[in-house]
TrEMBL record:
Keywords carried by this UniProt record: ATP-binding, Kinase, Nucleotide-binding, Transferase
Presence of the UniProt keyword Secreted in the record: no
GO biological process: fructose metabolic process
Domain of life according to the entry: Bacteria
Organism: Mesobacillus campisalis
Pfam families: PfkB
Family per similarity comment: Belongs to the carbohydrate kinase PfkB family.
Record-linked CDD domains: KdgK
Protein name as catalogued: 2-dehydro-3-deoxygluconokinase
PROSITE patterns: PFKB_KINASES_2
Length: 314
């Protein structure tokens, strides 16, 4: 196993037309979840990846497991819960603005994840454990599960990569800071966006955000800067890596998860970190072209072909 990840995935309903949901009668059904987005993108890039969660023992739970499994992700760790439902969410389309996200996930099966749901053997044999700051926001038991997974990873020399993915619809900035700063301190790689990095650290510049996390125990920080690319820093080096040009943005959601997958893919291929960050930018950019979260992520063949085409043009 190259990467193991876990977290909540929900059924995502995207209205076919824009405007307030009360006037919308047709929806597309797909799935959305930051960690499964990363797992799907990594699988398309050719890596062995496992995703786990607690899902409702219902039609939506089966749909989510089948969808993710169909992308070649190992889902054998998934636990089905007979008494709690699978969460759902909606993306209300607002022309010219980011979609409005509406969650129906309180008390969901995933929010009842506990440390015993975690496939310890899969973590022990993975090269990376990927986590996001959404999971500890779901409940106390989910927060404990994240701490437990980190401790297994650390005892077994597995690198931990953490994306804060701050969701202020799930908790306040204050609560998020209190819970996430101690988690971040135990993780090797941290991937904040500029805004969430500012909220967590109280700093505004990418360099200062990165220094905060490096001084707090992380060994590598990438601050994602949207169309401007990313800034990364470690003890050994730091640099800005330009963004990947994008012609049309349909929906930015899922880009950060694409970044995490591309970056991890570069690390797993032992690329220099600057190139791994550039691959992160590229995979993230692919997500912008579609309304769903994961549909836009590229296959490895596409990445190779584009690289070859770019070299011919040069
Ligand atoms: O990163 C994309 C996710 O935010 C989306 O898929 C839904 O996981 C989700 C969440 O909790 O917001």
């Amino acid at each position: 196993m190259d990467v193991i990840t876990f977290g909540e995935t929900m059924v995502l309903f995207t209205p076919v037309t824009a405007g307030p949901l009360r006037f919308t009668s047709h929806f597309q059904k797909t799935i959305g979840g930051a960690e499964s987005n990363v797992a799907i993108a990594l699988s398309r890039l050719g890596h062995k990846v496992g995703w786990t969660s607690r899902l409702g023992k219902d039609e939506f739970g089966t749909y989510i497991r089948n969808y993710i499994r169909g992308e070649g992700v190992d889902t054998t760790g998934v636990v089905f819960d007979h008494s709690r439902p699978t969460g759902v969410f909606f993306k209300e389309q607002r022309p010219g603005k980011e979609p409005n996200i509406l969650y129906y996930r309180k008390g969901s099966a995933a929010s009842r994840m506990t440390p015993s749901d975690i496939p310890e053997a899969q973590i022990k044999e993975a090269k990376f454990l990927h986590l996001t700051g959404i999971t500890p926001a779901l409940s106390e038991s989910c927060k404990e599960t994240v701490h437990h997974a980190i401790s297994i990873a650390k005892q077994n020399g597995v690198k931990v990569i953490f994306d804060p993915n701050l969701r202020l619809k799930l908790w306040s900035a204050e609560e998020a800071r209190e819970a996430l700063v101690p988690i971040v301190a135990q993780c090797d790689y941290i991937l904040p966006g500029l805004e969430e990095g500012s909220i967590l650290t109280g700093k505004t510049e990418p360099e200062d955000i990165a220094s905060f996390f490096l001084e707090n125990g992380s060994s590598f920080v990438v601050v994602k800067l949207g169309e401007k690319g990313a800034y990364f820093a470690s003890e050994a080096e730091e640099a800005h890596v330009p963004g990947f040009p994008v012609t049309e943005i349909v929906d930015p959601i899922g880009a950060g998860d694409g970044f995490a997958a591309g970056f991890l893919s570069g690390l797993l291929r032992n690329w220099p970190v600057k190139e791994a960050v550039a691959l992160g930018n590229k995979v993230g950019a692919y997500a912008l072209s579609v309304a769903g979260d994961a549909e836009g992520y590229p296959n490895w063949e596409q990445i190779i072909k584009e690289k070859a085409d770019a070299e011919v043009l040069r």
